[in-house]
Amino acid sequence: MEPIDFTQAKQDGKGFQFPGDFEITAVGAASANLPTHVPQLLDRAGLHVFHESVKHRQSGAGNFVSVTVSIHCKDREQYEAAHAALRESPDIKYTL
User: Are 80 and 95 in contact (CB under 8 A)?
Assistant: First the structure.
């Protein structure tokens, strides 16, 4: 598979365009206080977090919670660093 040329994607109006604001979602155990924990992790990673944008939703059985927050990223590396910072937490199972 050929790697994605993000320069071309930007010119075509497709894909992520930086700098920009993006939503990131983390999923983990409902007992982990993720609505508070996720923005803190992103803050510590040096990202600009829009704290007023934090939304969360519990799973049907109430065992898991997904937390979505908007962040500002100056480049793709910063966006990838946001995902990495969240995935380092043992409380977070995956990110989107």
Answer: no
List the domain range (segments joined by +) for residue 44.
17-95
Residue 4 lies in a domain: no
Render each residue's pLDDT in the chain as its tens digit; 96 residues.
555 555 554 555 667 899 999 999 999 999 999 999 999 999 999 999 999 999 999 999 999 999 999 999 999 999 999 999 999 999 999 999
Q: Is residue 3 part of a domain?
A: no
In a domain, 48, yes or no: yes
Q: Are strands 64-73 and 92-95 parallel, antiparallel or unpaired?
A: unpaired
34-44 and 76-87 are packed helices; what angle lies between their axes, rounded to 10 degrees? 130
Residue 23: CATH number of its domain = 3.30.70.260
For the record, the structure tokens of 51 come out as 């704290």
Nearest to 73 by CA among 30, 16, 33: 16
